[in-house]
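Reopening this ticket.

The earlier resolution said the output was attached, but the attachment link was broken on my side. Pasting everything inline this time so it's all in one place.
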Amino acid sequence: MNPKGKLIVIGGAVDKGSFTEQNFDKQVEKNLNFFETGILKRIILESRLRESSRIEIITTASKIPRQVGPEYARAFEYLGANNVNVLHIEKREEAMNEEIINRVKNADVIMCTGGDQLRLTSILGGTPVHELLLKKYEQEDFIFAGTSAGAAAASNSMIYQGSSSEALLKGEVKITSGLGLIDGVVFDTHFVQRGRIGRLFQAVVSNPKTLGIGLGEDTGLFISDGNSMEAIGSGLVILVDGRNIKDTNITQVELGAPVSIKNLVVHVMSQHDRYDLRAHELTIYNSHTVNS
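Inline output:
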């Protein structure tokens, strides 16, 4: 069964405006870092009640939740949203609180901020809030959005550790279970900026059925029907497809040794490009190949 909800995963550093500027409130229109046609605006436009949708920002992953939450709230409000709230869940017992559960139940959009994805899954995983998120995504006109850690945690498999420089050494990349909104993929974030291609290579060669998805900063995917992916934002999305891998040494070498891979397929997506997860087919929006 296809989920009724929509999934928006973002690579981090979402363009939401630089709210540290002294004159931001008076001169917001002159803030060149603010794009009201960007990803946050897309979240509003795709939501059930648009500007009137109830948006709850979950700051669990963040080390500075009291700063991050209000910043996102102000960004959404500047874009016209008029029912934005910040939901601080810092302990597992809070994810079992009836008031918090009701706020999630009534939300049209849940957005999980960046930070530490392992903190996010270890606090929310298996709680009533987690179960409710899965149910709403499956059964309702609901949006789950996540940036950075919030995006990494959205899939069933989640990368939670691994340095960029040593990522193609056996055992350097650590994977655990995420929140499980989508299966068959694994997300990595801040992808281009932090050179994380090797992390995704190892994640995919460990299980070639899993599609590796690297999300650049201020870049994301809008996923509908659990299947159709559209690139959104200003940067690149890298897809790593391991289904046609012909050979690798990953099972033969010792921990810490370099990993070899033969015939790994890589695709690059930019804004408006689409990828079909079932057909494994990429459609480039501005392709120079014109169908007659």
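Reporter confirms the inline version is readable. The first strand starts at residue 6 and ends at 10. Residues 15-37 have pLDDT under 50 and may be disordered.
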